[in-house]
Amino acid sequence: MRELAGHLGEPGAVAVCVDLLGGADPSSYLGEVVYLSGLRVGPGERDAFWFRAWGARGLLHVWTDDAVPAVLAGLGDPDPGVRQAAGRALDRLGERLDLG
Which UniProt keywords are given for this protein, alphabetically ordered (predicted)? Predict the structure, then answer.
């Protein structure tokens, strides 16, 4: 993930994660998904929830406050794995803010 941030800058990497978490068409981000998942995947090779989860998981490593609305929305995702990943991203934000 840090490598992706090195290419796009942290705000750019966060934007990719936010878009994927929000359900953006993953075919627009197949190159970036390699950095998030470690996998080369083509369109239709994975269920859509994986891309949303990878977006949330990416936010464990890069962050700007622009991600807050997407992470909060991710807590209501229909897939439990996405909800869990969004919850972990929110927990990481709490650690960054030293909220305990």
Answer: Repeat
Helix, strand, coil in percent for the chain, rounding step 5? 70, 0, 30
Position 65: which residue type?
D
Tell me which DSSP letter residue 62 carries.
Answer: -
Report the domain count for the chain: 1
Q: What is the pLDDT along the chain (100 residues), one digit of tens a residue?
A: 889 999 999 999 999 999 999 999 999 999 999 999 999 987 778 899 999 999 999 999 999 999 999 999 999 999 999 999 999 999 988 777 776 5
CA distance 86 to 96: 15
